[in-house]
UniProtKB/TrEMBL annotation, chain A:
It holds the Pfam family PP-binding. Residues 1-78 form the Carrier domain. This is Acyl carrier protein. It comes from Dokdonia pacifica. InterPro entries: ACP-like_sf, PP-bd_ACP.
Automatic annotation (TrEMBL), chain B:
It comes from the Bacteria. Coiled coil: none annotated. Belongs to the acyl-CoA dehydrogenase family. Residues 6-122 form the Acyl-CoA dehydrogenase/oxidase N-terminal domain. This is L-prolyl-[peptidyl carrier protein] dehydrogenase. Its cofactor is FAD. One of its GO terms (molecular function) is acyl-CoA dehydrogenase activity. InterPro entries: Acyl-CoA_Oxase/DH_mid-dom, Acyl-CoA_Oxase/DH_mid-dom_sf, AcylCo_DH-like_C, AcylCo_DH/oxidase_C, AcylCoA_DH/ox_N, AcylCoA_DH/ox_N_sf, AcylCoA_DH/oxidase_NM_dom_sf. Keywords: FAD, Flavoprotein, Oxidoreductase. Residues 233-381 form the Acyl-CoA dehydrogenase/oxidase C-terminal domain.
Length: 78, 383
């Protein structure tokens, strides 16, 4: 799951070219890797790819700060 | 995708049109001139159940939940029947950017405390995001909410707030964690009369003059913890959640207004005679009518597509940006074409043709300007 998310962010969403690839613990939001639109695209991707529903109240930094956070959040929903 | 409507949905739309035509059109010309908000008409709409369309049935006046497609069609009917474009605009602002977020993110106590008062028309609410220095770049806001024992202290100023001057409660966005940027915003329900919360008088403006719009100021304003909507940091999610539906519904009313405008234009150019024939017989005039029809129908298709996507629980970020851009720009262009087709008659305020143009211009600014919608579209498709 984690690899798929990293690949999608690297290829489709990252605002700038990422030196040396994206780490699972890298700050996606504070660092500006994802902007608002990127975040919404990521949510649409997660819903399509993993068949989950991201509820509006779950779209908070605790769940989306890093790829590792996203991964934990998805696992918690399974 | 199925674009057919049920009998029940169409019947509801027709009931809304006939309600609006018979009850809401008696004083808008004077209200527009004098910048007057018609509280009486707001109450009539609440009593009819319009304000309840955006909340679950237990918080409103309907006996069953209203699906988004029916709500959109009803708002289209309101825009068609109500000749005051300001009233549907203001109602939509409260319904989708205040009531909906409270229904989605609120605690049970918040829902029970605020929603019935809003849907019944007893209270009026506004959504306060924009600031003097943060418009399009709204997440760069300066208003702060500092955590203290039992709540938060708000300081800052909100600007251009629809219904601000007459609000009983305001949904206020403020920074709770400055290091997190847009992820550090939280939302508070601030009640009128709270110490340190002030509203400005209604501001004079070009169009939508029947809607009070103004500033809100917070000076060491204490807000109880139980009045925070959602968790700390939920501000981004709360805006995003309501945005697509707000764009859909406010523009549904504009579709209704564009249809009314087109019908009036056709009737006028048929009966107005120059050079021995109806002006509608001149191709320059009929071309404008054809363009108006095309704008109406392309806008309507986008509207129904977004409403359908939302009814399926899908995201509509690209589609709602295209919808907002298409309808708001179309309403401006068609309003100008209508004035051209009416000649000097259309230029006089008393004939109720030019008002649509003044009302339409706000649509290319509020809820993200046309430039911002173009940015979203370009970015979403890969630029
Ligand atoms: C009728 C009306 C009702 C409103 N109601 C509310 C309300 O209830 N609550 C609320 O919070 N706000 C409300 N607003 C405020 C509204 O959301 C803002 O006016 C809007 O977001 C634009 O911000 P601004 O006016 O500061 O313009 P600015 O952001 O200063 O824009 C000025 C110009 O620069 C352009 N521009 C800015 N940034 C970019 C960019 N990145 N790319 C391209 N062009 C750019 C804009 O398109 C515009 O042409 C309302 C506004 C109006 C007109």
């Amino acid at each position: 799951m984690q690899e798929k998310i990293i690949k999608y962010i690297e290829e489709e969403l990252a605002n700038e070219e990422l030196d040396g690839g994206l780490e699972a613990t890298e700050d996606l939001l504070g660092s500006g890797i994802l902007d608002s639109l990127g975040m919404m695209k990521l949510i649409a991707f997660l819903e399509d790819e993993f068949g989950c529903k991201v509820l509006p109240e779950e779209m908070v930094i605790e769940n989306f700060m890093t790829v590792a956070h996203v991964n934990d959040y998805l696992v918690s929903k399974q | 995708m199925d674009f057919s409507w049920t009998e029940e949905q169409l019947q509801f739309k027709n009931e809304v049109i006939s309600f609006a035509e018979t009850k809401l059109n008696d004083s808008h010309l004077v209200n527009d001139h004098k910048l007057e908000f018609m509280r009486k008409n707001w109450q009539l709409c609440a009593d009819f159940g319009m304000l309840s369309l955006s909340v679950p049935k237990q918080y409103g006046t309907h006996t069953k939940d209203i699906d988004i497609l029916s709500a959109i069609l009803a708002m289209e009917g309101l825009g068609y029947g109500c000749r005051d474009n300001g009233l549907p605009f203001a109602m939509n602002a409260q319904m989708w950017t205040v009531q909906l977020p409270i229904a989605q993110f609120g605690t049970e106590t918040q829902k029970e405390t605020f929603l019935p008062k809003l849907t019944s028309g007893e209270w009026i609410a506004c959504h306060a995001l924009t600031e003097p220095e943060a418009g399009s770049d709204v997440f760069n806001m300066q208003t702060t909410a500092t955590k203290v024992e039992g709540g938060y202290i708000l300081n800052g100023k909100k600007h251009l707030i629809t219904l601000g001057p007459v609000c009983d409660i305001a949904l206020v966005f403020a920074v709770t964690n400055p290091t997190l940027g847009k992820w550090g915003l939280s939302v508070f329900i601030v009640e009128k009369g709270t110490k340190g919360f002030e509203t400005s008088l209604n501001k004079a403006k070009m169009g939508l003059r029947t809607v009070p719009i103004g500033d809100l100021t917070f000076t060491d304003c204490f807000v109880k913890e139980e009045n925070r909507l959602g968790s700390e940091g939920a501000g981004w999610s709360i805006t995003n959640h309501s945005l697509e539906l707000d764009r859909c519904s406010v523009h549904a009313s504009q579709i209704g207004a564009m249809e009314r405008q087109l019908e009036a234009s056709i009737a006028y150019v048929k009966q107005r005679k120059q050079f021995g024939k109806s002006v509608g017989q001149f191709q320059s005039v009929s071309n404008r009518i054809a363009d108006m029809k095309l704008r109406l129908e392309t806008s309507r298709l986008l509207l129904y597509k977004v409403a359908w996507l939302k009814s399926q629980g899908k995201s509509a970020m690209l589609e709602s940006a295209m919808l907002k851009l298409q309808i708001s720009e179309s309403f401006v262009a068609s309003s100008l074409d209508t004035i051209r087709n009416h000649g000097g008659y259309g230029y006089l305020t008393e004939n109720e043709v030019e008002r649509d143009l003044r009302d339409a211009v706000g649509g290319v600014i509020y809820a993200g300007t046309s430039d911002i919608q173009r940015n979203i579209i370009a970015k979403t498709i890969g630029l």
